[in-house]
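Table S2 (text version). Query chain:
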Amino acid sequence: MMAPQHAIAAEAPECPDLCVLVVEDDEIMRLSLADRLCLEGIPARAAGDLAGARAHLAKGEADLVVTDVRLPDGSGFELFDEISRHYPGTPVIVMTAYGDVSDAVALVKAGAVDYLTKPFDMGRFVGTIRRTLSRIADTRLSADAPDIHFGTFRPGTGVIGKSHAMRRIERLVARLANVDSSVLITGESGVGKEVVATLIHQNSRRAAKPLITVNCAALPPNLIESELFGHEKGAFTGATHRRIGRFEQAQEGTIFLDEIAETPLEIQVKLLRVLQERVLERVGGEEPIPLNVRVLAATQVDLDQAVKEGRFRSDLYWRLNVIHIRIPPLRERPEDILYLSRLFVKQHAEEMGSSAPGLSADAEAKLSSMDFPGNVRELRNILERAVALCDGPRIMARDLMPPEQDFEDSEDDRPPPTLKESVADAEREAIHQALVRNGGSVSKTAASLGISRKSLWEKMRRHGITK
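Corresponding structure-token output:
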């Protein structure tokens, strides 16, 4: 049973949009905890068993999980294990009766962030939740914020998205800062696998050292070994000088092996040896070269299936798949579409040395209705074209042309927007900017615009604006 939603809209500026999932089989306690969080301005969901918790987790409705150790269809241990494997980076707080404290301590040693012994004071409960949320809270960043620096990624800024899924990835990246474990990044073409790899490197202790990116699919089969591991002079016909391979170039830094599934099986064997022994030999060389390199890999291929079909070595798969990050396609996180659109418009305008145009209501509606088979890459390209070609202060729906459409064909005889349409666009933009300035607070935004909260809510509903 889900907690009542009437209090979820309460404002909590210190932890915006972070949702707490309470997993407790006792209905009275479950609803009491969830209602209290909502009254405190902390969005909350509630589940009475493992099945309900799984459903909320699958929908991305859990930035923090508070769970009882004993559940009717399992245990807190099982839930913690599933979260660790499928939703890494999501913190867990354990609730337990006094007689089960040893179980809670065991979970904390395994990685849970804290535990509460029943019965506990409600104020202590809320305080524990707030402290935990303050450690994981993301800074909501809009395209109008003055401190965006594109190309510099920092967990919590929201540069890769504002959805629960992308914030979870950012938090996981933050937890990887001080470890050198291999990471396998999967997802469809265009979702941003290289962006996440860059995020991992730039927020690691190796950030001052090189990040070497290798597109394994683009390397000629007869040269891939030399490209990766280098060769000695005279190793083969045409080897007129020693070549330092990509792995050596990445010494003390990070190597990112994109499209790893495209590497031939014979190269996979050598990759496995390099990963296991941390040494390599150049082609034609005899002296082992010690390596100090962190390995990131990415693919859009289902590697489990590739292993079953004999196209990818299982031992290499498990060596790479120490930590797995799946990036969902854009269609699974529609809340990122307009958010990223505004960021990309600002970025492209900066690159072109022009002021950033706004997105008109019809442009936002069109973007929201598109399915983007090319994912974030397609969205970025469409907006780059729109920024380059729009001839006014706002990008209109007609500016969002597919790349194959000729610009000359896009010109039409449609009349300019009416006064009513222009006023509506200006009002919508003013409300959006005011919400950004006031951190999404409806009360503060209404006051700054000189209107009542009720009027602001009505205007937001009419213009399709959400906080």
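Notes on Table S2: Residues 1-16, 138-152, 406-413 have pLDDT under 50 and may be disordered. The first strand starts at residue 20 and ends at 23.
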